[in-house]
Amino acid sequence: MDKSEKKESFGKKYGLILALIAMAIVYLFPTPVDLPTQGHRLIGILVFAVIIWMTEGVSYPVSAFVIVTFMAFALGMAPDPAKYGALLGTSKALQMGLSGFSTTAWALVAAAMFLSAGMMITGLDKRIALVVMSHVGVKSSRLVIGVIFVGFILSFFVPSTTARVSCMVPIVVGIIRAFGLEKGSTFAAVLMMAVAQADSLWNIGIKTAAAQNMVAIGFIQQVLGKDISWLEWFIAAAPYAAVMSVILYQLLIHVMPPEIKEMPGGKEALQKMLKEMGPVSVNEKKLLIISCLLLFFWVTEKKLHPFDTTTVTITGIMLMMLPRIGFMSWKDAVPHINWGTVALFGVGISLGTALLKSGAAIWLANHFVALFGMETMTPLVVIAILAFFLTVIHLGFASATGLASAMIPIVIAVLQSVKTPGIDVLGMTMILQYTICFGYILPVNAPQNMIAYSTGYITSKDFLKTGIPFTIISYCMILLFSATYWHWLGYVG
Question: Could you read off the pLDDT of 447-470 as tens digits, one per residue?
Answer without folding.
Answer: 888 888 888 898 889 999 999 999
